[in-house]
C-alpha cells in the first residue's frame, strides 16, 4: 500500500491539531481509550464539545497553553493509502521544528483562518514548504463556519494566496474550504458549502499522485553497512546494505562505486524476505556485486554515466537550529551527508534570507536560531551530492557541533 507523508503548518490557532484530530476521528482511526481520555480532559477544561486537538497536543505544556510546541507524528490508514502526519508548530520561534517535520513530506497542508486571511506566519510556512521542495501544497481555509460559509471570503483568500504563490516554486496547489471543528469538507462533504465542487481533504489525500515525485532516473545508493555473515550457509556472502535514494536498480545492471570509480555488475538484490527483481527509491535492500571491490560505509553506488557531483566545495541553503551560538564564517563543524561523515569549514555567509519579505540581507555575517541563509563550505572529504531540486535525499545534509554532538543546522545543496 502506498505511503503518503504529510505535514500541517500555519499560524497559531489556525486549527492544525483540531484538523488532524477530526481527520483521525471521522476516519475512525483512534482507539476507544484515546477517545475516552480526550473526552475526560475536555470535560476537565470546561469544553462544551470534545477537543479533538488533544489527540496531537500530547505534551503537558502544549495542553496547558493550547498550542503545539513539538512536532507530533500520527499514523493512520484507509483502504487506499497509509499516512504519516507531522503536526508542526505555528509559532515563529519554532521554525526549526517545522523544517524538521516537513523535510520528508510529500504534501503540506497550510491552514489559514478564514477570519484573519493570509498572515505573515502563513507566508513563512508556505515559503519553507517551497524551499523544502514539497511537491504538493493544500491550502485549507479553515473556520469557514465563523464567516457563515461565505464563498466570497474563500475566493478572496484564494486570490491573495495565488498571487503570493506566483513568487514561489509550487508545482501543485489545491484550495479547500473547511471547518475542522464541525468536520465540513474534512472527511465528509459539507452541506453548508454546496458551492464548493472540489474534493474533501481526505479524498484529495487518497487520490493525489505521488509516484512521480521520487527521482526514478538517477540511481543513487549510499552504502549503510557491509553485510558478511560468514556462516556455514553463506560462507562467501558479501552484500552492501542501504536505502535506495534514487532511480531503479535491477540484477544485471552495470554500476559504478564512488569514490573509487570502479565498475561492476549487480548479481542480486536481497531483502529480509528474499531476493527481488528490482529496487526503487525508498526501498531498503542489500546489493551484491559480481566483483570484489573495496566498499565501505559512506560510499555511493550509481550508474557509470550518471553520477552525482563529487566535490569538497558545497554551496547550500541552511536553517540554523542551535539554541546557543551563531553560525559565522570560519566555523568548523561535522557534516553528515547520506551515510557519509566529514568535517566542514564555513567559508562564507553569502546572505541571510528574510522569510517574511523574501528579500536577501547581504550585510549579515552571522546566522541565529531559526534563520535561513546561503553559505559556502569546504569539506575534508569529497561528498557525492546532487542539487536538492534534483534529489531531496542526496541533496540534503545536517551539520553537527563536534564538541556537544548536537545537530545545529539542516541544509540543502544548491545547483551550481
SSE inventory with pairings:
Blueprint (H helix, E strand, L loop, with lengths): L2 E8 L5 H11 L5 H13 L15 H6 L6 E6 L4 E6 L7 H8 L4 E7 L6 H12 L4 E7 L8 H15 L6 E6 L23 H7 L12 E3 L2 E3 L11 E5 L4 E2 L4 E5 L4 E9 L2 E3 L2 E2 L3 E6 L10 E3 L6 E12 L6 E2 L3 E6 L2 E15 L4 E3 L4 E2 L4 E14 L10 E6 L4 E8 L3
Short structural description:
It is built from seven helices and 25 strands. With 416 residues, it is an alpha+beta fold.
Give a verbal description of the structure.
The protein is of the alpha+beta class and 416 residues long. It folds into three domains: 3-212, Rossmann fold (3-Layer(aba) Sandwich); 220-302, Elongation Factor Tu (Ef-tu), domain 3, CATH 2.40.30.10; 309-413, Elongation Factor Tu (Ef-tu), domain 3. Helix content is 17%, strand content 36%. Strand 20 and strand 21 form a beta hairpin.
CATH class of the largest domain: Alpha Beta
Helix content: 10-25%
Query: Could you give the count of β-strands?
Result: 25
Number of domains: 3
CATH superfamily of the largest domain: P-loop containing nucleotide triphosphate hydrolases
* Amino-to-carboxy terminus distance: 37 Å
Radius of gyration: 23 Å
Q: What profile does the largest beta sheet have? A: 8 strands, antiparallel
Q: Characterize the overall form.
A: globular
Proportion of residues in extended strands: 35-45%
Structural class: alpha+beta
What is the averaged pLDDT score? 86
Number of helices: 7
Could you please say which CATH topology of the largest domain applies here?
Rossmann fold
CATH architecture of the largest domain: 3-Layer(aba) Sandwich
Amino acid at each position: 500500500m502506498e505511503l503518503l507523508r504529510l505535514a500541517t503548518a500555519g499560524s497559531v490557532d489556525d486549527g492544525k491539531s483540531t484538523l488532524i484530530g477530526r481527520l483521525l476521528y471521522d476516519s475512525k482511526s483512534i482507539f476507544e481509550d484515546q477517545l475516552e481520555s480526550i473526552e475526560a480532559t475536555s470535560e476537565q477544561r470546561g469544553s462544551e464539545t470534545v477537543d479533538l486537538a488533544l489527540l496531537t497536543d500530547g505534551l503537558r505544556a502544549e495542553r496547558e497553553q493550547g498550542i503545539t510546541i513539538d512536532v507530533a507524528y500520527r499514523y493512520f490508514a484507509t483502504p487506499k493509502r497509509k499516512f504519516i502526519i507531522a503536526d508542526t508548530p505555528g509559532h515563529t520561534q519554532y521554525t526549526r521544528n517545522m523544517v524538521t517535520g516537513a523535510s520528508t513530506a510529500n504534501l503540506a497542508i497550510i491552514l489559514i483562518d478564514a477570519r484573519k486571511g493570509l498572515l505573515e506566519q502563513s507566508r513563512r510556512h508556505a515559503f519553507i514548504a517551497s524551499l523544502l521542495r514539497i511537491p504538493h501544497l493544500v491550502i485549507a481555509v479553515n473556520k469557514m463556519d465563523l464567516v457563515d460559509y461565505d464563498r466570497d471570503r474563500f475566493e478572496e483568500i484564494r486570490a491573495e494566496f495565488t498571487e503570493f504563490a506566483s513568487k514561489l516554486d509550487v508545482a501543485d496547489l489545491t484550495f479547500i474550504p473547511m471547518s475542522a471543528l464541525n468536520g465540513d469538507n474534512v472527511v465528509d462533504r459539507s452541506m453548508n458549502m454546496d458551492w464548493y465542487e472540489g474534493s474533501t481533504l481526505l479524498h484529495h489525500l487518497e487520490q493525489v499522485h505521488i509516484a512521480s515525485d521520487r527521482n526514478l532516473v538517477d540511481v543513487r545508493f549510499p552504502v549503510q553497512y557491509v553485510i558478511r555473515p560468514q556462516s556455514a550457509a553463506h560462507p562467501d556472502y558479501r552484500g552492501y546494505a542501504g536505502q535506495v535514494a534514487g532511480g531503479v536498480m535491477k540484477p544485471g545492471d552495470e554500476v559504478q562505486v564512488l569514490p573509487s570509480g570502479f565498475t561492476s555488475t549487480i548479481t542480486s538484490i536481497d531483502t529480509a524476505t528474499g531476493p527481488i527483481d528490482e529496487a526503487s527509491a525508498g526501498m531498503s535492500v542489500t546489493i551484491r556485486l559480481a566483483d570484489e571491490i573495496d566498499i565501505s560505509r559512506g560510499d555511493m553506488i550509481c550508474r557509470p554515466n550518471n553520477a552525482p557531483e563529487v566535490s569538497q566545495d558545497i554551496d547550500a541553503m541552511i536553517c540554523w537550529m542551535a539554541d546557543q551560538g551563531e553560525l559565522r564564517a570560519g566555523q568548523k563543524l561535522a557534516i553528515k551527508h547520506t551515510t557519509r561523515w566529514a568535517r566542514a569549514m564555513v567559508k562564507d555567509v553569502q546572505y541571510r534570507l528574510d522569510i517574511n519579505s523574501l528579500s536577501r540581507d547581504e550585510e549579515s555575517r552571522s546566522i541565529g536560531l531559526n534563520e535561513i541563509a546561503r553559505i559556502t563550505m569546504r569539506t575534508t572529504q569529497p561528498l557525492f551530492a546532487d542539487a536538492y531540486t534534483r534529489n531531496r535525499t542526496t541533496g540534503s545534509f545536517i551539520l553537527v557541533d563536534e564538541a556537544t554532538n548536537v545537530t545545529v543546522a539542516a541544509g540543502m545543496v544548491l545547483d551550481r
